[in-house]
Amino acid sequence: MNAEGTDTRGPGERTDTRGPGGRTDARGPRRGRRIGYRMATACALAGAGLLGGCGGGGQSTLHPHSGPAHDIRTLWWWMLAVAGVVFLGAVGLLLLAWMRRRRPGLPLLGEDEGATVGLVVVFGFVIPALVLVALFVVSDLGIRTTEAPAAGSTPLTVEVTGHQWFWEIRYPGTQAVTANELHIPVRTRVNVITKTADVIHSFWVPELNRKQDMVPGLPNRLLLYADKPGVYGGQCAEFCGAQHTHMGLLVFADPPQRFRSWLANMGAARVAPGTPTERRGEAVFQASQCASCHTIRGTPARGVIGPDLTHLATRSTLAARTIPNRPGYLGGWVLDPQHIKPESKMPGFNLSGPDFQALLAYLRSLR
After folding, report:
1. Is the entire prediction scored with pTM above 0.85?
2. How far apart (Å, rounded) are the C-alpha atoms in residues 65 and 228?
3. Theoretical Cys-Cys bridge with 278: which of 80, 161, 217, 273, CB 3.0 to 4.6 Å?
4. In this structure, are residues 111 and 104 in contact, taking their beta carbons and an 8 Å threshold?
5. Cα 168 to chain center, whole Å?
6. Under DSSP, is residue 141 helix (H, G, I), strand (E, B) or coil?
7. Using alpha carbons only, how large is the chain's radius of gyration in Å?
8. What is the 3-state secondary structure of 61-95?
9. Nearest partner of 227 among 202, 199, 251, 248, judged by Cα
10. Crossing angle (nearest 10°) for helices 353-364 and 276-287
């Protein structure tokens, strides 16, 4: 640059980017490295978050315990692989565009406009359409094991009704009624009839089968089958109100003999209180709002708003798998249910100390 402001550099000459003292200004490269580190950290944290949300609580699609669940897992892996190929292809094209950002045209093809349009059509429309059609055919037409069983084709039928926010479970042909814990015999096909008493719910036990929506006025059917004994977690998979998150259930796959014993016990009326404290607790239950909302077979309590409590003490959890069924938690649930499960329909109770202890003793006796 001369005194008149004219650029006097010759062809191929570079601008001097040295800073004061003749040192090269390294702020650009350093800034680029910092951005790269931040992006890598963000990706690592996002990946850790995604992995942390996989599975847990016996609710992982990737740990199947039935034929239908195995097919769903296989489909999931295939879809992940296809999505991964598409993602890597997109990233590759972005990197290629960035590396060639100062050069016109495409590699090998140059500036051929027709070829460019062809690539857009092939990679932007044809390949995505073929992939989506293939996935639709495989997932909706190719997998038959997840279909609902035909009526009368299974040795056992169970009715599951969704409420805000618990599961009512009945075994047609018996008097057995329970809540939030579904028992089935292992290695036995079970026809689950799903219903709802209020809003839309969705019944889902990921390790045994697909989701099944529960739409008002429209009963649906779902096959449950467990290939080995165990406890499998389930969840409402459709937002259904404030306590949707706390609407879980457990599926117990029992050996056949244990299941028959359990079913016979569930079909029986409550065992009469055996101690003065338990008898006082039953009187407290009948005299309070408890009997207006809950049923205990063998007593005048015939409420239908809350779960059937005839065999409450046999359950492992309370409030639809929100808290364990232990004396301390049971006492807290009776005294202040809104603290544990806000907006549930159960009110708290202001009982005297002796009445409270008697009621707990009575509820713990319901086996």
Report:
1. no
2. 7
3. 273
4. yes
5. 19
6. helix
7. 32
8. CCCCCCHHHHHHHHHHHHHHHHHHHHHHHHHHHHH
9. 251
10. 100
Kind plus residue range of the DSSP H or E element containing 266: helix 256-267
Class of domain 156-267: mainly beta
Q: How many CA atoms lie within 13 A of 353 on its CB side?
A: 0
Answer whether 78's CB lies under 8 Å from 139's CB: no
Residue 42's φ and ψ, nearest 5 degrees, are -60, -40
Dist. CA 322–CA 320, nearest whole Å: 6
Yes or no: domain 276-364 corresponds to CATH 2.60.40.420: yes
> What DSSP string runs through 181-207?
EEEEETT--EEEEEEESSS-EEEE-TT
pLDDT value for 127: 86
Domain boundaries, the chain: 65-142, 156-267, 276-364
Sites in the chain below the pLDDT cut of 50: 3, 5, 11-15, 17, 19, 24-25, 52
Q: How many residues does the chain have?
A: 367
Distance between CA 175 and CA 267 in Å, rounded?
Answer: 4
